[in-house]
Amino acid sequence: MSVRGVEIGTVRAVRPVGPGREFLIDDEPVDLLLSGGRIVDIAPAGVLPARGEVVDAEGAWAVPGLWDNHVHTVQWALAAERVPLGAADSASAAARIMRDAPILPDGRRIGTGFRDALWPDRPSLSELDAQTGVVPTYLINADVHSVWLNTAALAREGFRGDDGVLREEDAFEISRRLNAVDPLHSDEAVIRAGRAAAARGVTGLVDFDMAWNAEAWPRRVAAGFDAHRVEFAFYPADLERAIAGGLRTGELLDVPDTTGFLGSLIRVGALKVISDGSLGTRTAACSHAYPGDPGNYGVLTVPPEELTAMLTRATGAGLEVAVHAIGDRAVTAALDAFAATGATGSMEHAQLVRHADLVRFGRLGVRASVQPQHAVDDRDLVEHHWAEQTAIGYPLASLRAAGAELRFGSDAPVAPLDPWQALSAAVWRTDDDRPAWHAEERLTLEQALEASARTSLRPGEVADIALIGRDPRIADAIELRTMPVEATLLGGRLTHIV
Predict the structure, then answer these.
(1) Residues 444/400, Cβ–Cβ less than 8 Å
(2) pLDDT tens across 327-346, in order?
(3) How many CB atoms within 10 Å of residue 177?
């Protein structure tokens, strides 16, 4: 019986789907022969002798290992310890939930995942104080761009807010503080979360945690992390530190490794720049004002000239950039900065894109790092708060048709870290009994898998593989979203097996 951590030499009787499938002439099972962490041969089942440890897929399907290209790792890992607020349908309901929330060992109450954009009432300091009293209480918006604090929490953190709501940089600072728990505690949470991700077929993620991750990841590997590959980002406050430390995008980070395997897991990622707000907090920078708030066009949190300077500095130092841009004004400004500097990298989110900007992604080589689940989560918000916008909301097919390279993610904990949810949302554009939302932006399964993987099932490729219990090509929206994952291989080693 194969167990987690074992290096596999043969995956027997599997049916490949996705990148690499085009070289097979039929759907009959094949054997994948592995060596040195790579696929070295593919042959009809039973034709070649098995080598090494064997996983018998028994005709199950296989896809290349899946990536989540946008994760706030520590916040995602700690979310399991916080009170979920996604079901709260009003500010009053959220405050009542927090009244009964457990007090953590540090004396705080923390809730996460509220969505206030369509609430009938507004968050208020008096409402939260009345329910939570003198216990410092924190409610984190699902989009992380705002937090709602009671008076005790505001005093503890040294902030002021008439309604108790802090937005953008002040909200990020609160999140940084809440996430700065004892490293032993957070590392254990990240290790548990990594194994949960592997159980969904994940073999890599991009970490956008708001911390100095160049120190955190070697420490986690030393503590036992081995679940998936990681590309870690850093933020403008640490740009000069990264340059002084000789970090270069794509290079392996030196980590404790007695196996010859762990040293291949952690790579330097990009400079992350948050250039505007979010839809949920009504701060995404848009061409038209938000309904009922004629002066509110959102905010460009980084002025265009400052953004250009950052991209110039990063590019000259061998670093890619990942620019958060949600509203169409922010998307245009980010593309302008890419064009002016020759920077390479990605635009994160790109949720509202002007028609004229679509083709610029392909021409400039800017990857569109998008979160398909956000489209179905936000469809009601878009119909209300972006009803007057004239740009395209949550484009997928349009970006791809214009030549953009798509990469999928979850923005966890904003959406669950589960690539099958992203795949289902991209292919079906709904997660309930309503028709597809803007069905013209749907992708085919093959296109969605291409955006979810970094490799393929071809000889010579790294053996990052997920074995699954259904044929995804004929799965409906629910079947795709709930896809059973029977085993996950990372460089030929089992990170999950049922």
Answers:
(1) no
(2) 999 999 999 999 999 999 99
(3) 12
Q: Is 491 left (phi over 0), alpha (psi -120 to 50) or beta?
A: left
87-106: pLDDT as tens digits: 999 999 999 999 999 999 99
Tokens (6 digits) for 39: 């696929």
What mean pLDDT do residues 409-413 have?
97
Q: What is the pLDDT of residues 371-403, one digit of tens each?
A: 999 999 999 999 999 999 999 999 999 999 999
* Per-residue pLDDT, 181: 85
Cβ–Cβ under 8 Å, residues 407 and 447: no
Q: Please report the sign of the dihedral spanned by the C-alpha atoms of residue 375, residue 401, residue 435, residue 388.
A: positive
* Beta strand pairing call for 392-393 and 352-353: antiparallel
Nearest to 61 by CA among 495, 449, 461: 449
pLDDT at 1 over 60: no
| Residue given tokens 């290790």 in the structure block | 191
Give the pair of three-digit tokens for residue 125.
Answer: 């300091």
Two structure tokens written together for 67: 């990536």
Distance set, CA 88 to CA 98, 113, 114, 135, 150 (Å): 11, 9, 7, 20, 17
Q: Is 158 left (phi over 0), alpha (psi -120 to 50) or beta?
A: left
CA distances from 265 to 195, 230, 259, 268, 345 (A): 14, 6, 12, 10, 20
Burial 301-323 (b: 16+ CB within 10 A, else e): bbebeebbebbebbbebebbbbb
The number of beta carbons lying within 10 Å of the beta carbon of residue 365 is: 14
At 131 the three-state DSSP class reads helix
pTM value > 0.90:
yes
Identity of the amino acid at 470: R
Structure token pair of residue 98: 């927090």
Distance (Å, whole) CA 203 – CA 419: 11
